[in-house]
Amino acid sequence: MAKWQRRMKQWLINQFDMPEDVMHEFPRITTIGQIHAYIENHRGLVTFSDHEILLKMTGGYVKVTGEKFVLKMMLPEEILVEGHIHSVQFIEK
Amino acid sequence: MRIKQGLFFQGSITILIKGKKPERFLNELMRENIPIWDIKRHGENVLEATIYFKHLSALRKLRRQHRFTILFKHHYGLPFLLGALRLNKPVITGLLIGLIVIFLVSNMVWQVKIIGVTPEMEYKIKNQLEEYGLQEGVLKFSLGSLEYMERSILKDVDGLLWVGIQEKGTTYIVQGVEQKDAEPKEPEGPQHLIAAKKGTILQLLVESGQPVAEVHQYVEKGDLLVSGLIGEDEESKKMVQAKGKVFAETWYQSHIEVPLRAEYFTLTGNQDQKFGLEVGQVSFPIWGFFTDDQGDSFKQVERKPVYFLKWKLPLTFVQTTYFERDHVIQNRTEEEAVETGINQARKQLLRQLGHDSEILEEKILRKTRENGKVKLILFFKVKENIAKPQPINQGE
User: Fold this and answer.
1) How distant is the Cα of A55 from the closest Cα of chain B, in angstroms?
2) A68 close to B (CB below 8 A)
3) Do residues B120 and B169 share a domain?
4) Contact at CB, B26 and A74, closer than 8 angstroms
5) Within an 8 Å CB–CB cutoff, is residue A61 touching chain B?
6) InterPro entries under this entry (chain A) (predicted)?
C-alpha cells in the first residue's frame, strides 16, 4: 500500500511538474551565507547545542554543525538557526 | 521576523528548561503549536527559550506531564508593565471610559443663558438658537460660528435690536437688546417750520401754524415756511407749534465712475465641508478626505479649541468649508455702463433721502470715457420734505 502511494506521488510530480519537496515530505534547507539556515519540513528536534543541531525528518536526520548557534525561531514545521554554519549533513537510517 | 511583530503588546517570557534532554520539551511545545524563539544552550541539561506570554498556561500544563524544571528568567512587554501597576483590563477600560466621558463633558454646552430680554423674547431666542444648533447638551464642535448666529438671529427674530453671544467655558451667555418703539418726542414748545435746504415748493401740507411760503415759490436754506405765530392783529396773536410737511423740488448732482470691465465672484451655493484636528502645526483629517478641487472655491476656516476640564488642550478642531464660486467677468458697452451708473446713483440718493421722497427727473450733465471707465456727472430733480422745526425763542 505504502509503495503504491509513493509511486502515485511520483507519477503526480512528473505529470504536473510540481516541486519535489511539496509532494514528498522532504526537508527544505535554505542557507543565507553562513549565518542563517532555514529548515522546513522537519519532524522534530533531537539535539541542540551551540555547535551542533540534529533534526529528525522522514527517513533520517539532518545535522548542521557550526559555532554559536541560536535557534531564532522554532515553529511546528520550520526552524531558523543563526550562527556560523560549517556544514549541513544528511544522515540516512 | 513575523514573531517579533507586536511583541511588546503581547508580552514574552524567557524561560530556562532544566532536565535530561531538554530538547524533548521543545518538541512537546512545538507539537502544541507554541512558537518558540531565541533558543540557546546553557549547559548539558539546560536550555534557554522565549515564548509568548499568552502561552504560559499551556506551558504549565505541559510541564506537569514531564519531569522538567522550568525557571522564569526574564519577562518583557506591556502585560507585565500593567501587572506591575496592578492594572488589569476592567480598570483600564474604566479609566479610558472615564477619560472619554470627562473629555466629552468638557466640550459640551451645559447652559445657554439668555439675559436682558423679556420672557417672551427669551423663549423666541431660545427656539431660534436651537434651530441653529445651540442648545444644552450638544458638543461645541458641532456649533457653527457665533458671529453667524448673532447675525442671523437678528434677521429671524423680530423685535431684536442687538444680540451678543459669549462663550464662557461650557456656558453660553446670550445677551439681547429688544427694540422698543421709541415714542416720537414731541417738542413741547411752540415752533416755526423753516427750510432745511433750498428748493422750489411744490406742496404745502400744514397741520397747524400759518403758512408763509407759497407753492412755486423758491426758498433758500433757513427761510421761514410755516410760522408758529398766528392771529390777525397784535392782541390775538398767539404762539403755536407749527406742524406739517412742505414738499419742494430740490436738486442734486452726483459724480459716478463705472468701469467698462467688471470682475467679481458669485457663490454658486455648492459647499463642501472638511473636519480635522490640528496639533501644533500638523493637522489630521477626520472627515471629508476627498473634496472636489474642481472649480474655484472660497475657503472658510473655523477653529475651535478642545478642552479637558478647564484646560485647553494643544488640539484644535478645524472645520473647513469650501464654497464653490464663479468668477464673473463682465464687459459692458458704454450704454450699459451708463445705465448701471444711473441706477447706482439713484439707489445711493434714495438711501440718503427720507422715505417720502421721490426722484422726479434725472439728466446726464456730462459723460466722459477714459482709462476703461465711464465718468458721469448726473443731475437729479427730487421731491422731498424740506420742513425743519425751529423753536420760537420765548425769552423775547
Assistant:
1) 11
2) no
3) yes
4) yes
5) no
6) Spore_YabP/YqfC, Spore_YqfC
* Closest Cβ opposite residue A49 in set B37, B38, B41: B41
Strand partners, B51: B13
- Is the minimum CB–CB distance between A32 and chain B shorter than 8 Å? no
- Which residues have CB under 8 Å from A86's CB, separation 6+? A34, A65, A66, A67
What domains are defined for chain A? 25-92 (2.60.40.2000)
Q: Which among B78, B35, B37, B81 has a CA at the least distance from the CA of B58?
A: B35
H or E segment at B149?
A: helix B146-156
pLDDT average, residue stretch B81-109: 83
Place of cell 457663490: B267
pLDDT digits (tens, 9 = 90+) for B138-174: 888 777 788 888 888 888 888 888 888 888 878 888 8
Average pLDDT of chain B is 83
Can you tell me which residue has the cell 528548561?
B17
For chain A, what's the residue count?
A: 93
- Pairing state between β B111-115 and B171-178: parallel
Render pLDDT for A17-40 as a digit per residue (tens, 0 to 9). 777 666 667 788 999 999 999 998
Q: How many domains does chain B have?
A: 4
Q: How far is B32 from chain A (nearest CA, A)?
A: 8
Grid coordinates belonging to B28 = 512537546
Min distance B280 CA to chain A CA atoms (Å): 43
